[in-house]
Design a protein that fits this description.
Layout: H1 2-27, H2 32-39, H3 46-57, H4 65-83, E1 93-94, E2 97-98, H5 100-103, H6 106-130, H7 135-149, H8 154-163, H9 171-181, H10 183-196, H11 201-228, H12 231-234, H13 240-243, H14 249-275, H15 281-292
Antiparallel strand pairs: 1-2
Helix pairs in contact: 1-2, 1-3, 1-4, 3-4, 3-10, 3-15, 4-6, 4-10, 6-7, 7-10, 8-9, 10-11, 11-14, 11-15, 14-15
The chain binds geranylgeranyl diphosphate (GRG).
C-alpha cells in the first residue's frame, strides 16, 4: 500500500519540485543553480505522502493538494540544507549526493536555506488558491506550517539539540527535543492535509495526535538506522550521532528498546485515528513504514 502512495508522492512532488527549481533558475540570479541543486535531491517524500494521505482520509479529492505537499517538502529541504552546515551537524553527504555547502560553499548554502522559506510560502499560497480554499482555511494552514517550522517547532528543537551535544540525555529529554525538531513538521503535514479537506475539530485533533506520535517514531527509527545501517543504505553518513557524541534514543534505550518504543508510538498513533472514526489503510501502512523503513 505504501508503495503506491510513495510512487505517487515521488512522481507528483518531484515534478512540482522540478518546476519550482526551473522557475528559480530563471529568476534567482546566481542562487538559481544552488537552489535548484537543493530542490533536486531525491528524498523519500514521507511528509508529502502524509499530507496526501490525511487529505484523502478526511475526504479531500482535489489535485491541488500535491502543491501543498510540495510546500511542506520545501520547508523540510531547507532544514536539511542547514542541518548539514559545519555549524550544525557538519555533514558531507545527503540523499546520496554531496551536501549543498560541499558543492557550492557555506555562505551560498546558508542563503539557499533562508531563500527556500519564502519559496515554500509562495507555493503554499498557490496551493490554497488552486484548491479553492477560503481565506480562513488558508490562514489556518499557513499558521500551522509556519508555527511548526519556527521557534516553537523545528528551529526550537534544533536549537535544543545543538545545546545538548556532549550531554547525556534520558528518553524524556530526547522527546522534548525531537517532538519539536522532527515531530512538529510531520504533525503539521498531517494537520494541513486535514485542514485542506475541511476536516472538523475532532478529526484535526486526531491527525495532530497521529502526527505527533509518528513524528517521534520517525526520529527513533532514524536514530536506530544511524546506529545500524550503512552510509550507502542511508545516502548520508552513518554513525554520525556517535561521532558527534550525541545522545539518541539508541544511547538512552538500546537498539531493541528504541525499536520497541517506535512500535508502541506507531500503534498508539493508529489507535488514535480509529477512536476518532478515521479509517485509513494508507495512514496505518505509513505508520508501519515509518517504524520498519530501511533508509
Ligand atoms: C537556526 C537552530 C536553527 C535551526 C534551523 C536546521 C534546522 C532549522 C532544523 C533541523 C531539522 C532537522 C534536520 C530535523 C531532522 C529530521 C530528520 C530525521 C530528517 C531526515 O528526514 P528524512 O529521512 O529525509 O525524511 P529525506 O532525505 O528522505 O527527505
Amino acid at each position: 500500500m505504501t508503495e503506491v502512495l510513495f510512487a505517487e508522492a515521488r512522481a507528483v512532488i518531484d515534478a512540482q519540485l522540478a518546476e519550482v527549481a526551473s522557475r528559480l533558475e530563471r529568476t534567482a540570479g546566481r542562487f538559481g543553480r544552488p537552489l535548484s541543486y537543493a530542490l533536486g535531491t531525491a528524498g523519500k517524500r514521507v511528509r508529502p505522502a502524509l499530507v496526501l494521505a490525511c487529505y484523502r482520509a478526511a475526504g479531500g479529492r482535489g489535485a491541488g493538494i500535491a502543491r501543498l505537499a510540495t510546500a511542506v517538502e520545501i520547508i523540510h529541504t531547507y532544514s536539511l540544507v542547514h542541518d548539514d552546515l559545519p555549524c550544525m551537524d557538519d555533514d558531507a553527504r545527503r540523499r546520496g549526493r554531496p551536501t549543498t555547502h560541499m558543492v557550492f560553499d557555506v555562505p551560498t548554502a546558508t542563503r539557499v536555506g533562508y531563500l527556500l522559506v519564502p519559496v515554500a510560502v509562495e507555493i503554499l499560497c498557490e496551493a490554497t488558491r488552486e484548491l479553492g480554499l477560503d481565506p480562513g482555511t488558508h490562514q489556518a494552514i499557513a499558521r500551522e506550517l509556519l508555527a511548526a517550522s519556527g521557534i516553537r517547532g523545528m528551529v526550537g528543537g534544533q536549537w535544543l539539540d545543538l545545546a545538548a551535544e556532549g550531554r547525556s540525555l534520558v528518553a524524556e529529554d530526547l522527546t522534548a527535543i525531537h517532538s519539536r525538531k522532527t515531530g512538529a513538521l510531520i504533525r503539521a503535514g498531517c494537520v494541513v492535509g486535514g485542514l485542506a479537506a475541511g476536516a472538523g475539530p475532532p478529526v484535526l485533533a486526531a491527525f495532530a495526535e497521529f502526527g505527533q506520535d509518528i513524528g517521534l517514531a520517525f526520529q527513533i527509527a532514524d536514530d536506530v538506522l544511524d546506529a545500524t545501517a550503512t552510509t550507502a543504505q542511508l545516502g548520508k553518513t552513518a554513525g554520525r550521532d556517535a561521532s558527534l557524541r550525541k545522545s539518541t534514543y539508541v544511547s538512552a534505550l538500546g537498539v531493541d528498546g528504541a525499536r520497541a518504543e517506535a512500535s508502541r508510538l506507531a500503534g498508539r498513533a493508529v489507535a488514535r485515528l480509529a477512536s476518532a472514526g478515521v479509517g485509513s489503510a494508507s495512514l496505518a501502512s505509513l505508520a508501519d513504514y515509518i517504524v520498519h523503513r530501511q533508509s
